Amino acid sequence: MGFILRSVFWLTLASIIVPAEARLGYTGKGAGGHEVPFSEQVHDTAFAVWGFATRLAQTCDTNPALCAAGQNLMSTVTDTGASLLKEAQSHLPTPENPRLADAISHAQQHKKFQARIE
């Protein structure tokens, strides 16, 4: 365990100290990662998302038990979240209408003021 922690520490330190161009293999002659056009970055991102979705669909075709377990997990999470929300709402006091609260306090102030005058 100590070896893994030391390895993570030294690799993190090396990744901070060594410049990104040297880590990623860029040279002064070629384009760096910061010079890639935005449209190409968007295209690569969309391609990666599409690839992930197709792999996920293939996984559901080859292993339907995994997809069923994922659906059960999502339904359990949403049901638990809904029940926690209902429980929290039942414990919290219902907020008063601010206009009604202002009208009640104004009426009480008016009666006190009227009593002082009389």
Strand and helix map with partners:
Layout: H1 2-17, H2 20-24, H3 38-62, H4 64-91, H5 98-117
Helix pairs in contact: 3-4
Report on the structure:
By secondary structure, the chain is mainly α. Helices cover 80% and strands 0% of the residues. It is built from five helices and no strands. The longest helix has 28 residues, at 64-91.
How is this structure best summarized?
With 118 residues, the chain is mostly helical. 80% of the residues lie in helices and 0% in strands. It has a domain at 38-92.
Features:
mainly alpha, extended
Structural class: mainly alpha
Q: What is the strand tally? A: 0
Largest sheet: none
End-to-end Cα distance? 84 Å
Assign an overall shape.
extended
Measured by DSSP, the beta-strand proportion falls in under 5%
